[in-house]
Amino acid sequence: MDDLGDYRPGLQAKNEQGVRSVLQEAGLTKNEIRALSKELGLPTWNKPSFACLSSRIPYGTKIERWKIDQLDEGEAFLADLGFYQVRVRHHDKIARIEVMPDEMMKIVELSEAIHEKFKSLGFQYVTLDLQGYRTGSMNEVLSAATKAAGTGAAASAAAGKATV
């Protein structure tokens, strides 16, 4: 249910393909799902949310396997360093890292190793987003009308260029 308050082009694709979201149909929020998972003893009950890696690539940008691999490896590296909730946003040669505000100094402390790793992944520049981790940050460039419509030129353009 939490995802319904944000612009999510994947919801349109889900509906077009007849895919069901049974937890959404049950009206469950992420916190409720975590609580039920913990009650059932599932080891993933407290796993951070993890949207599709393609959501880290700006609208209108061709989604390619090598970009997904860069994001996956970059986020896995940061997780191995102990960052719990992290996103790497792909802006061509720039990796924009989002972490929780209380972990920003840790990024700075580890900046040399992080920079070296991300350069090896093919990024020319590595940046820290000073607003910190937030869901849907790639949607900030969309117009209010596009978000309200739930579909739009941005979603159509992104969908038309997607190749993985």
> Main beta sheet, described?
3 strands, mixed
From the N-terminal CA to the C-terminal CA, the straight-line distance is 28 Å
Counting helices, strands and paired strands, the structural category is: mainly alpha
**Low-confidence segments, ≥5 residues, pLDDT <50?**
151-164
Q: What's the Cα radius of gyration? A: 17 Å
Strand fraction equals 5-15%
Mean pLDDT: 84
Shape: globular
Number of separate strands = 3
Q: Could you estimate the helical fraction of the residues in percent?
A: 40-55%
Number of helices: 8
Structure description:
- The chain is mainly alpha-helical.
- Helices cover 42% and strands 10% of the residues.
- It is built from eight helices and three strands, in the order ααααββααβαα.
- It has a three-stranded mixed β-sheet with strand order 1-2-3, with helices on one face.
- Strand 1 (86-91) and strand 2 (94-99) form a beta hairpin.
- The longest helix is centred in the middle third of the chain and has 16 residues, at 65-80.
- It is globular and about 45 Å long.
- The relative contact order is 0.16.
Write the layout of secondary structure elements.
Blueprint: H1 9-16, H2 22-25, H3 30-39, H4 65-80, E1 86-91, E2 94-99, H5 104-109, H6 111-120, E3 125-128, H7 144-149, H8 153-161
Parallel strand pairs: 2-3
Antiparallel strand pairs: 1-2
Task: Name the descriptors.
mainly alpha; 3-stranded mixed beta sheet; 164 residues; 10% strand
